[in-house]
User: Which sequence fits this backbone?
């Protein structure tokens, strides 16, 4: 037990570094958040036009009020689970600074994880209360009753933790490609577009054909955004709730193991361009 606590203490400076990075570049962080919020409102007006052009009050199981909640919950979830491991690894290999991280007697993956946790702590503390309050106010306006449930909210937080770990280890695995191709900017852009679609960030997966929806729900990307949002909205309950949480845990363990394997293989191909 003492040995594990000692190991955790080693990574405390990385948590502090992540928190300091957020506070130091707070103007950049604010503009980044404002850009995402603007994207939310663009999505709202697009879906509002889609629903107004149709004759039905519901579309693939969603009413317009539910779609509004979905859009802003997707923004909150995406912000909470975001991970920059792919970009960071690519940049360190490009400029050669990865050498300084490798020579330290600590886990390469863990340094990124704890640094991001510091950054994430600051982001969540600032955003989660006003955004959840805003979502619940919107739900109250549309329904006339309080929809917030503490159990559903706690399950949403648990699901977001799983989603973040999936996203982190997936990005780490993808980032190891930089050990071979050296520069990841273009590949990372392509990856973000594909993941955004497969995770339900662009359109709900229920809008897809049944066979495609079932396939996408099993893939790890639905566990990133779609599953937490559906849990918060109360779309999953009973066995389906346990199934999707269990599926998230499976993908966490899968990508964690894969990251270990890829690290052992990729480090043999390391050739930095900077330094």
Assistant:
């Amino acid at each position: 037990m003492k040995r594990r606590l000692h190991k955790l203490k080693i990574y405390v400076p990385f948590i502090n570094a992540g928190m300091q990075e957020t506070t130091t570049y707070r103007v950049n962080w604010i503009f980044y958040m404002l850009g995402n919020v603007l994207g939310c409102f663009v999505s709202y007006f697009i879906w509002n036009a889609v629903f107004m052009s149709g004759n039905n009050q519901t579309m693939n199981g969603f009413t317009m009020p539910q779609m509004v909640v979905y859009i802003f919950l997707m923004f909150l979830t995406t912000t909470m689970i975001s991970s920059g491991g792919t970009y960071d690894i690519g940049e360190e290999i490009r400029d050669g600074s990865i050498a300084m991280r490798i020579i330290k007697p600590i886990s390469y993956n863990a340094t990124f994880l704890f640094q991001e946790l510091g950054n994430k702590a600051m982001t969540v503390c600032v955003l989660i209360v006003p955004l959840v309050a805003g979502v619940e106010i919107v739900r109250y306006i549309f329904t006339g009753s309080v929809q917030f449930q503490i159990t559903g909210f706690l399950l949403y937080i648990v699901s977001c933790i799983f989603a973040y770990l999936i996203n982190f280890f997936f990005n780490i695995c993808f980032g190891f490609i930089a050990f071979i191709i050296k520069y990841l900017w273009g590949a990372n852009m392509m990856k973000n577009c594909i993941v955004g679609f497969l995770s339900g960030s662009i359109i709900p997966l229920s809008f897809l054909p049944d066979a495609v929806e079932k396939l996408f729900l099993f893939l790890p990307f639905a566990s990133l955004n779609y599953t937490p949002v559906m849990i918060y909205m109360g779309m999953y309950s009973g066995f389906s709730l346990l199934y999707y949480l269990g599926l998230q845990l499976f993908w966490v363990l899968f990508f964690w193991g894969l990251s270990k394997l890829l690290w052992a293989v990729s480090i043999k191909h390391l050739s930095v361009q900077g330094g």
